Amino acid sequence: MGSATTQALAAGADALAAARVDLDTARELFAASRAVAGSSALSGALADQAAAADVRGALVGRVFGTLSPVAQSLLAEAAAQRWSSASDLVSGIEELAIRATAKAETADVEAELFQVSRIVSANPELELALGSRLGDDAKKGELIATLLQGTASTGTTLIVSSLVQQSRGRRVRALLTRAMKLVSAERGRTVATVYTKAPLTAEQSERLAASLGRIYGGGVSLNPVIDPAVVGGIRIQVADDVIDGSISSRLADLRQRLAG
């Protein structure tokens, strides 16, 4: 990611923070992202740094004039920024849509996205069908909406169904992982994946989240994974950090020391 895109994403996050959005706004932003991704002429024009920012903003008005004023304003702000590439602009609009969903939805979207990711991981045929370049993208979105009906919030369903309609060669699990990070970032939370042999109790989860919150600062969202390989104790992953207190890890370390 180039420095121009990094700054553009930060500007988009600031604009979203000042806006009043709902799930309809997020839905409009996802639709705009698909429209821009589907037209190289449009994405190129909106990301063209040779054109003045107000010219690019006027193009947003002409193309997306039927959208709500809030969605148009956020899109115009995105178009006014400098992007390292047209594809980065598409990703930037998609990021705005995910963040808008996180802002508007009250449910635990991070946890729901994690569960969807686990379902996809356990079903290779489903992941292949959703990530394939073949097939109707709208049908993929409908499939996810049907699978998640009654088990996930409207916001989570919107994110997942929108992402599978616009995978752009990305793996579904990678899309979901990125979405989880963006939702957590929008809500000022850190995501911790917790591997244990048996489920944690509610009290244990609360204590762990509080402890990790003191370490990393701010709120922490726990994604629990039951892993038989964790013989005892617990293994926690936060971004690139791994906190491993499991017996299996200590045994592996001991075997390595004996072999060395």
Output the radius of gyration: 21 Å
- Biggest beta sheet summary: 4 strands, mixed
What is the chain-wise order of helices and strands?
HHHHHHHHHHHEHEEEH
Question: What is the number of strand segments?
Answer: 4
Mean pLDDT: 90
Spatial gap, N to C terminus: 41 Å
- As residue ranges, the low-confidence spans are none
InterPro entries: ATPase_OSCP/dsu
Family: Belongs to the ATPase delta chain family.
Organism: Microbacterium gilvum
Keywords: ATP synthesis, Cell membrane, CF(1), Hydrogen ion transport, Ion transport, Membrane, Transport
Care to describe what's here?
This protein has 260 residues and is an alpha+beta fold. It has three domains: 3-104; 109-185; 188-259, Glutaredoxin. The protein is built from 13 helices and four strands. It has helices spanning 3-17, 23-37, 40-46, 53-63, 69-80, 86-104, 109-122, 124-131, 137-148, 154-164, 172-186, 202-216, 247-259; strands at residues 189-196, 219-226, 235-238, 241-244. The protein has a four-stranded mixed beta sheet with strand order 2-1-3-4, with helices on both faces. A hairpin with a 2-residue loop joins strand 3 and strand 4 (241-244). It is elongated, with a radius of gyration of 21 Å. The two termini are 41 Å apart. The model has no long low-confidence stretch (mean pLDDT 90).
